[in-house]
Specification:
Bound molecules: adenosine-5'-diphosphate
Distance between the termini: 143 Å
Structural class: alpha+beta
Strand content: 15-25%
């Protein structure tokens, strides 16, 4: 029966395609009967759905006869238009387990239902499809007031749900692989991320390629059901084996492929933790960077049986593969960067080691050269012909200069390898600076310039490393001298608040403004500077800067070309800014540094002035006995010759020999090298200090290991003093003299005390050491103990 315009009831007008179909359908052949017999409530429902643009349907009567609108067509998909007028149970057979009970609730119990984004596997397009719907079944009363049907509004959430899930996976991969440091980690973390999405990745695996895609290694898989038989750990793609997983094909074709034959080869593939059904298609997706010829790897994915592998879906997997590829590129860049940095560090370490080795190696021969030269120059009998004397003086100056360069290089290599350790001790900086500056007076005045040294007393102690401060002052002073031809040089030190401020000013050639910012850069020199010399390494000022920073201080320069320069060093006073571990409460026992001499000699050589070396003092009375311990014959001979003038010298080649000699006759002082075969200087020192009979014997250690690290070591183990090679004859003699004097004074004081105690009318005893060895007990004490002198020999 067809309905013409005139007979169309109002509720059936409009409604697009479905309006047309409903109007044209012969309803008398269905359980609903002819349209004019439909109850009012059904008519109202049909009116509602036909006018709605939301997907809606009405199920009416005991058979739930299905009527729907245009918007709902997309939901029924391939079942349209047959679904019109069919019982709902028939239309939705595949999801009736979900829909049936809900319809029942609405119809029988008169209770509406509501579901949000419910997963429904619909077969609306000829294949089972993962869909998500939000819908409500509302019971509709018939004319008798009892529920006669259901009206339902739907919204399709499939896109939103699956889209969100895919975004999550992409985000997860990116988060997890961000921190990956190796390729293996990238693969592992990617697969862990894929495992979180079993809907889109029922199973996944990654094969990475090697040798231009001729070998594939399994980098990981999400399922243990993918046995080694199915997925071997290594596949040789070049060989003429069946390319079961299509890896060779994929490499060749430069694009993804979809394998459909795998269930036939292996039987059901792993379904993963979400779906109950095995994948029948497997996607092989290249993991590769845009423009790259060969892929890094292949991503193997068991595809969901409930999604069509259409272009959009494949696009998602391509995004996944791209993300893995970009993580791999990052890892490779990182790895290359790391290797490069490591190689550079290694090179740097080797360079520093070489520097410090070679510098050490220079020091011993230099010491051996300087010593005899000094001896010749200081010969009190003046036996040298004048001509030779001048030559030797010049050789001596140059050897000193060489030594200063070697020392500076060594300082640098120590700073670079973090081995230069400062030892800060309270120092009368004013006095110390005055003394240092004093060594330049003669040279400056001899060159016809004025010299002013003004060092005001400071309100509190300055904690400085004496050797470093020496280098700071001497470097600045020798620069001032080198670059000033007339006028004046002045050195001043004063307090400014909580800082000590050192200024070294000159009226010399000055520094071009453009150069000022670069003055403290390493190896920076000013081209064509007119000073007393063109020689130089450009290392002096940068060393000064490093040394100043060790003290948490700053250095600055002010200069005007042609007028002069002022170098200003500011150091915080006190010790609060310095690490406790680097503070020594007292400065190392006074030593006569070789440094001022070295700098001065160099400066003097520029003016052609000769050195004026003081004649050595002679020792008086019976000469003290010194035991020299060194395995180097040259060094041993040299030191012996040096000391023979004032002392009685015996020698030993190592610690053991030294101990034997000491047992026979205790010397007044031991001067020992550190590095020796059989028994080294440290062990010798321990043996001497550990034996009560020799504990008071002064020991000076001698070593080529310059720097504070060795100095601290020397004091820590209880050496009385520590002399670093190279040393000047004067320095060594001064130190030996000081130690012998200290020992003598100590002995005198002790003797004095002993005498005092022996004659006191009270019992007195002195115990020493952890064993409480009785060192002294006077007569009264012995009486008290009821013992005699024979029983307790008093050491004297
Ligand atoms: P060196 O003196 O070994 O070349 P420095 O680092 O001590 O190295 O000095 C770098 C450069 O700074 C020198 O070459 C010189 O041109 C310039 N300079 C340093 N001190 C002064 C100064 N007091 N007056 C003028 N120029 C100076």
């Amino acid at each position: 029966m067809t309905t013409n315009e005139q007979t169309i009831p109002g509720f059936l007008t409009g409604g697009g395609e479905l309006g047309e179909l409903i109007r044209g359908k012969d309803w008398s052949a269905t359980p609903l009967g002819p349209v004019d017999t439909w109850p009012q409530s059904l008519r109202t429902c049909v009116r509602i759905i036909l006018t709605s643009s939301q997907p809606m349907f009405v199920w009416w009567g005991p058979d739930l006869i299905n009527l729907y609108n245009d918007a709902y067509k997309a939901i029924v998909g391939g079942k349209h238009p047959d679904a019109l007028g069919q019982p709902a149970r028939q239309v939705w057979a595949e999801i009736w387990d979900e829909s049936g009970p809900r319809a029942e609730t609405a119809l029988r119990k008169n209770i509406g239902t509501y579901d949000e984004a419910l997963l429904l596997i619909m077969e609306r397009n000829g294949y089972p499809e993962e869909t998500y719907y939000t819908f409500s079944y509302s019971p509709v009363p018939g004319d008798d007031g009892q529920p006669q049907g259901i009206i339902c509004a739907n919204s399709d959430d499939t896109e939103r749900i699956t889209g969100d899930r895919q975004m999550r996976t992409l985000r997860e991969i990116s988060n997890r692989t961000m921190e990956a440091k190796t390729e293996a980690e990238t693969y592992e973390r990617t697969l862990a991320a894929l495992e979180q999405n079993p809907q889109d990745f029922p199973f996944a695996a990654i094969y990475r390629f090697e040798n231009e895609c001729t070998v594939a290694h399994l980098a990981g898989k999400t399922s243990t059901e993918l046995t080694a038989g199915m997925m071997p750990t290594q596949l040789r793609l070049s060989e003429q084996l069946p390319d079961v997983w299509g890896l060779a094909d994929m490499c060749r074709e430069h694009t993804h492929i979809i394998k459909t034959d795998l269930p036939a080869v292996f039987g059901p593939l792993p379904a993963g933790s979400f779906w109950k059904r095995s994948p029948d298609k497997v996607l092989i997706m290249p993991v590769q960077q845009a423009g790259q010829k060969l892929p890094f790897a292949a991503l193997v994915v068991g595809l969901s049986p409930f999604r069509q592998a259409d272009e959009r879906y494949i696009g998602f997997f391509k995004l996944v593969a791209d993300q893995v590829a970009s993580s791999l590129v990052n890892v490779r860049t990182f790895e290359e960067e790391r290797k490069r940095t490591e190689a550079l560090l290694e090179l740097d370490r080797a360079k520093t080691t070489f520097f410090s080795n070679i510098s050490h190696e220079f020091r011993t021969p230099l010491t051996l050269m300087l010593g005899p030269l000094e001896e010749l120059l200081n010969d009190p009998q003046q036996l040298l012909p004048e001509q030779h004397r001048a030559n030797i003086a010049s050789t001596h100056r140059n050897a000193l200069r060489l030594l200063r360069l070697v020392n500076t290089l060594l300082d640098f290599s120590r700073i670079e390898s973090d081995r230069l350790q400062a030892v800060f001790a309270p120092v009368d900086l004013s006095q110390f600076t005055t003394d240092l500056a004093g060594s330049f007076r003669a040279a400056v005045e001899h060159a016809g310039m004025e010299y002013e040294v003004r060092c005001a007393p400071l309100p509190q102690a300055a904690y400085v490393d004496k050797q470093m401060w020496e280098k700071i002052v001497l470097n600045l002073l020798s620069n001032a001298f080198k670059y000033t031809l007339r006028g004046r040089i002045s050195v001043s030190l004063e307090a400014d608040g909580a800082q000590a401020v050192l200024k070294v000013a000159d009226t010399g050639i000055g520094i071009p403004e453009a150069e000022l910012p670069r003055m403290f850069e390493r190896f920076h020199r000013i081209q064509n500077a007119n000073g007393r010399t063109h020689e130089g390494t450009g290392i002096g000022l940068s060393l000064v800067k490093e040394l100043v920073s060790f003290h948490q201080g700053v250095i600055d320069v002010n200069s005007k070309e042609g007028e002069g320069s002022v170098f200003t060093v500011r150091l915080p006073l006190g010790r609060a800014h310095l690490p406790d571990s680097h503070i020594a409460e007292t400065a190392a026992s006074d030593y006569e540094s070789i440094l001022p001499d070295m700098y001065l000699q160099e400066v003097l050589s520029l003016t052609g002035t000769e050195r004026a070396e003081p004649v050595e003092e002679k020792q008086q009375g019976t000469p003290a006995h010194i035991l020299v311990v060194d395995d180097n014959v040259d060094m041993r001979d040299y030191i012996s010759r040096l000391l023979q003038k004032g002392y009685r010298v015996t020698v030993a080649a190592n610690g053991e020999q030294a101990l034997e000699l000491i047992a026979k006759e205790t010397p007044d002082l031991v001067l020992s090298d550190i590095m020796m075969p059989v028994m080294d200087g440290i062990e010798l020192l321990h043996k001497i200090k550990g034996n009560p009979a020799t504990a008071a014997l002064p020991v000076i250690l001698l070593s080529a290991r310059a720097g504070e690290e060795a100095r601290i070591e020397g004091y820590d183990i209880g050496a009385d003093d520590y002399v670093v090679k190279p040393f000047s004859a004067r320095e060594l003699q001064a130190r030996i003299k000081a130690q012998i004097k200290i020992a003598a004074t100590r002995r005198e004081t002790e003797q004095h005390l002993r005498n005092l105690f022996s004659h006191t009318p009270f019992p007195v005893a002195i115990f020493r050491g952890p064993e409480l060895y009785i060192e002294l007990a006077n007569d009264k004490m012995l009486d008290f103990w009821n013992r005699t002198h024979e029983k307790y020999v008093i050491k004297s």
